[in-house]
């Protein structure tokens, strides 16, 4: 993605740039949320999951990505110096690829937060179901392609499947 991630850019500008890039790539945005205190996200049409995976995760075989029949492709947008909650999930694993900006990521198999890893565009990280994780905006806007690997085909993960261990916004 060709996005200007300068920390002085407004949220509106960054979201407009991403939306234009997604449109150029012919992705259908089914939900846009730019009201999160840490930034927001774009949900891509599930019918385009294979195309999304091929674009952002070309190094992975679709069979290795697809645990169930749903992938829930998204683009995450994290603002400079903001953090998503320290969290984990019961019904999904997650795959992230940094597409613009530099972000911080913390992961741990316990409730103790690990060290911050700085990830740059092209970097890839995978979190298993139950693995604790946090996405952190560093000194710029961070743009991350995300795929949810639903682990329960009868009960796919959703926004309710977030166990927050710590949250800067009191959620």
Automatic annotation (TrEMBL):
InterPro entries linked to this entry: Man6P_isomerase-2_C, RmlC-like_jellyroll, RmlC_Cupin_sf
- Taken from the record, one Pfam family name reads MannoseP_isomer
Gene3D superfamilies registered for this protein in UniProt: Jelly Rolls
**Which residues are in the Mannose-6-phosphate isomerase type II C-terminal domain?**
54-166
What keywords would UniProt list here? Isomerase
Q: GO molecular function terms here?
A: isomerase activity
Question: What name is this protein filed under?
Answer: Phosphoheptose isomerase
Taxonomic lineage from the root = Bacteria, Pseudomonadati, Bacteroidota, Flavobacteriia, Flavobacteriales
